[in-house]
Amino acid sequence: MSIYIHVPFCRSKCFYCGFYSVASLSFKEAYLSALCREIGLRTNYLPRKEIRTLYFGGGTPSYLALADLEKIVEKLSGHYSFHPEAERTIEINPEDAGPDKLKGLRQLGFNRLSIGVQTFREDALKRINRTHTAKMAVESVENALKAGFSNVSIDLILGLPGCGPEDLERDLRRAVELPVTHLSVYMLSVDPGSVFEKQLAKGGFAGASDDLLAGYYQMAVQILQDNGFEHYEISNFARKQKYAVHNMNYWQQKPYIGFGPAAHSYDLTSRQWNIAHVKSYIESLNNNCLNFEREELNKVDLYNEYIMTSLRTMWGADLCLLENVYGIYWALQQGKVEDYIQKGLMRKERGKLMLTEGGWLLSDSVFSDLFVV
To answer: Is pTM beyond 0.85 here?
Structure first.
């Protein structure tokens, strides 16, 4: 079982970001009170089992003061039992990764950091409205190790405006020089509600072509694998099997509960998501009401989700499970598999069906082709 905490506050909105966030702390105190109230109201959402992963995401969780984070952690500890070796991750921006803040995070029990680097190019950081410098990005990793964090992940974005293949190669080679255990590498997308979406509509922004992004992705895979990173999920790479356990729980369809505005939860038979509006979230919980939408999942939904989540990892889909649990749906689609194998996009190995590196590059179209609608 996993817990996700959504902290919706940021110093400023990154131009590529479509996640729910607000560039202000004006609702911070009311949010903290509402969040703690939600934690108390939803203790029976999932069976009482030990928590294996905790993830603070956003927004920018590290924008909160240590005292604010301590309040949330203490509330969770009062309602949940955590496994002694639970993975506890917090997303942190480089400008927040000073020695005192990192020491405080360790004292609060966090044992994994996800640092939002995105790029080491100063001009590119400015173009996407990041508030840190390349120097801060490098120092954040160094400070993390000094503070006792041995499990550190950084994010990079492929296809940022104004960045060519030489820039990407420099970013990747700088990243592998750092003592990080994990890298998440995302192709730039124009998310709904993002500044880039608005610029695109006005003709002020042109994203990289699909072919160019594919070339960037292949370069990233090659450089990271050459430097000891295992490509275990479409966008994720790990050294020494330091996988992102929290995200793996999502991909393995394990239950989780999400607290905070826009946070999602999953109980094996349904999904629900909180209202993506901090003021409405607070007002509802001030009245001890939960404000969310819910979707009951039928067998077709569960089959489609299994296809999407299992094939995005190097462990692939279990063929016995597909035949025994989702047989009626798999029978409609399995005839397509041999064609994908012939094209080099899939392979079968030890009872599993996996996408190849080339298949991952075309994963969206493969998934949709194997879905039942």
So the answer is: yes
